[in-house]
Design goal:
With 472 residues, the protein is an alpha+beta fold. It has helices at 60-63, 85-101, 110-113, 122-130, 150-163, 174-181, 219-232, 272-289, 307-312, 332-335, 366-375, 382-386, 402-415, 429-433, 435-444, 456-462, 467-470; strands at 22-26, 30-35, 43-46, 48-52, 55-57, 71-74, 140-144, 168-173, 187-192, 197-203, 206-207, 213-215, 245-249, 258-261, 301-302, 305-306, 317-320, 326-329, 389-392, 423-424, 454-455. Strands 3-2-1-7-8-21 form a 6-stranded mixed beta sheet, sandwiched between helices. Helix 11 (366-375) crosses helix 13. It is flat and about 65 Å long.
């Protein structure tokens, strides 16, 4: 049954097989979209976009193309909040239309465009594209971070109804959805994303807002610590993305790279933001294949033996950079994650990093954040939350990422010695990355959820301000 935005939906239309709700999960690194009830999102698009000559372009196949003078930007700011809503609306629409709903001109234009005796004018075609209502037949279930401001939440609802024509809408917190994706209506969610690490207490499927805290010690910060490691290496390591050279020769370990660089095009290379974006791909690979958490503080001792000495005795891991330079990384690969637990382990990154002037504080570390979150909730539920700590997020995927869970469990056991602490996290890396989307997919597909949808009629009567009342 097709839903129309010109009538109030009846509850039956939101239950069972009658609904193909779209689940949209925007993040700093990628934006995920898919249909409710499915196991994984069908459409995963970078939240970065290419900006060239005043126009915006979306998708991997576009932003990976090193065109002259192209710049790479993000729809979100460093806090993980949408800053450029005009571009964000286009990117979200692209994410849904490209792989899910397909292009759908506004219904009022369909008879005119389908008239075989009168080919539509260019103005009519342009109007059809600009007024496209991609969600006229699909309710939209969208997620947002715990610290998302009210104005941003209202803007999301406004776009969903006014621009996309959705018949029904709901906005859910990422922490709650990640908890439900792991089968836990009550938990303490540790979501380590690209721009922010968010700690969200969830009880009975509801976010306890007073206990929700966040920190910039997340994926982008970890990348800055890797840059510090590479610049301190002897010799210093410079990341040379593939688009800068045409060929490379095999070299011995620790020997300088041998590449044939491309001549500069007459119109020039891409802007520095493009190179930074491509370098981040290498940093992410390094993070996931080399970087590892040590189970205990590197500054502590065990049976009189310094933990640093134990870490140094571990085997080194080999890594090859895009230009062919390769070497082993031993003890230093454990130091990268240490600032997440001990702010004193911070290493100043090079001036080219966004964190060159940043120094973390003790209350921004993971153990301190969790202690703050736990202290803000009722005493009676604290033991239950600590026994259900859920770790998710794309930036939690390090080499042997179970060592991150072990380290976190050891730190929390030290902070809460009289409470049972248990860390839970999906074994499948995709379930970690897509946890909020999966939770949204499960929730939006439930027949019992139909009562919670915000209908078009309710929006028309109450305006965008209704989002804070209905979508807590």
């Amino acid at each position: 049954m097709a839903l129309s935005n010109f009538k109030e939906p009846v509850s039956a239309e939101y239950a069972g097989d009658e609904v193909s709700a779209v689940v949209l999960d925007p993040g700093y690194s990628t934006t995920r979209a898919g249909f409710a009830g499915e196991d994984s999102p069908k459409s995963v698009v970078p939240s970065y976009y290419a900006s060239l000559d005043g126009k915006s372009y979306f998708g991997d196949h576009v932003i990976d193309n090193p065109r002259s003078n192209v710049a790479i930007k993000n729809i979100m700011n460093a806090d993980g909040i949408v800053e450029d809503w005009d571009t964000a609306e286009q990117l979200f629409k692209y994410t849904m239309v490209s792989n899910l709903t397909g292009a759908r001109p506004r219904k009022e234009l369909l008879p005119y465009l389908a008239n075989e005796t009168h080919y539509p004018t260019r103005d009519a075609q342009k109007e059809a594209e600009e007024t496209e209502r991609c969600l006229e037949d699909n309710p939209l279930f969208m997620t947002d971070p715990p610290h998302n401001p009210t104005k941003a939440r209202e803007k999301a609802m406004e776009i969903a109804f006014e621009s996309w024509g959705t018949p029904a809408f709901f906005l859910a917190r990422t922490g709650v959805m990640a908890s439900l994706a792991n089968g836990r209506p009550a938990s303490l969610v540790v979501d380590i994303g690209a721009s922010q690490t968010c700690i969200t207490p969830v009880y009975d499927g509801i976010m306890l807002k007073k206990g929700a805290v966040r920190s910039p010690l997340a994926g982008n910060y970890i990348s800055s610590q890797i840059r510090a490691l590479l610049s301190a290496n002897q010799p210093p390591i410079t990341i040379t993305p593939h688009y800068l050279f045409t060929a490379k020769s095999r070299v011995e370990p620790n020997e300088p790279a041998s590449v044939t660089f491309k001549p500069q095009p007459p119109s020039g290379f891409p802007q520095p933001s493009f190179r930074a974006y491509k370098e981040e791909e290498t940093l992410r690979n390094f993070k996931e294949s080399i970087v590892e958490a040590w189970p205990h503080s590197l500054s502590s001792t065990y049976n009189g033996v310094p933990q640093e000495d134990l870490a140094r005795s571990n085997p080194a891991q080999h890594f090859e950079f895009p230009d062919g330079y390769h070497q082993d990384f031993a003890f230093e690969r454990f130091k990268v994650l240490e600032p997440l637990f001990d702010h004193r382990a911070h290493t100043q990154p090079p001036s080219s990093s966004d964190f060159s002037d940043f120094s973390p504080t003790a209350d921004q570390t993971l153990p301190a954040l969790i202690k703050t979150a736990i202290s803000a909730v009722d005493v009676d539920i604290r033991p239950h939350l600590l026994s259900n700590v859920v770790v998710v997020g794309g930036s939690s995927l390090f080499r042997g990422y179970n060592t991150l869970n072990q380290r976190l469990e050891n730190e929390l056991a030290r902070l809460f010695p009289n409470t049972r602490v248990k860390i839970h996290s999906p074994g499948n890396p995709y379930e970690r990355v897509f946890a909020p989307w999966i939770g949204g997919s499960i929730t939006a597909s439930l027949g019992s959820f139909h009562q919670l949808w915000v209908s078009r009629k309710e929006y028309d009567e109450g305006g965008a301000g209704i989002v804070e009342k209905r979508c807590k």
